[in-house]
Amino acid sequence: MYNCALLKFKDIVSNDGHLTSIEERIDVPFIIKRIYYITGVAQDAERGFHAHKTLHQVLICLNGSIKIRLKTPIKEEQIKLNDPSVGLYIGPLIWREMFDFTKGSVLLVAASDHYSEDDYIRDYNLYLDEAKDTFLSHSIHE
Amino acid sequence: MYNCALLKFKDIVSNDGHLTSIEERIDVPFIIKRIYYITGVAQDAERGFHAHKTLHQVLICLNGSIKIRLKTPIKEEQIKLNDPSVGLYIGPLIWREMFDFTKGSVLLVAASDHYSEDDYIRDYNLYLDEAKDTFLSHSIHE
């Protein structure tokens, strides 16, 4: 999907467990200015329901599993994250919804910038309007 | 303990779970260049057993619980991490050992620099030697 990608990180496995390292600019295509994580989500709860104008993010599920629904004006995809060595890169202008958080699930996000409410698009119709031109011009390449 | 501190992060709680955000320079006293996480550790396994010459790190337990043993030439402390809104800051020249990882536990670390093997001190006697002067000069303030 345009502006989205699954990234595979190096997973250093030993008898003492797994260590996965993410270096900015090397393992993710941006500078990490902020990280955040979501825990304690009830299984029937859904989160997200927004897009970003400029922010780049990578989402990683560190325990349990979480489903992500990605939407653009021309496409919809669903991805299950359940492997700490796999990151879902989401660039600008992608609508995301997170659901089916299993008990004890942990969603870690590395973000390219500090928090700014101005960068959010929280209304879906407004999102479709803002993203329309970008995706119509890219649809022939998808 | 010198060069160590517990940091309390803002925990945004809603019906949809907890979100904790860590912005570089704001919520941690350094620029985040790398993050890494440790998962799938057996309960009887121990990790760490090193100090860093210059690296600054914050350790956060995102699920389950993990114990950290901190050592300097003059002191030893043990801390249990089990709250995603609490980070353990560890600065240079602190020896650390991690143990008692519960099933499903997740240890997230934000680090001030890229990986460099040269920054590690992995021999405890060498560590005592390198850290001795720093801690003897600080001991009167502790």
From TrEMBL, chains A, B:
Native organism taxonomy: Bacteria, Bacillati, Bacillota, Bacilli, Bacillales
InterPro entries registered for this protein in UniProt: QdtA_cupin_dom, RmlC-like_jellyroll, RmlC_Cupin_sf
Pfam families, sorted: FdtA
Spans traversing the lipid bilayer: none
Recorded superkingdom: Bacteria
Sugar 3,4-ketoisomerase QdtA cupin domain: residues covered: 3-131
Coiled coil: none
Name of the protein described by the UniProt record: Sugar 3,4-ketoisomerase
Source organism (scientific name): Sporolactobacillus kofuensis
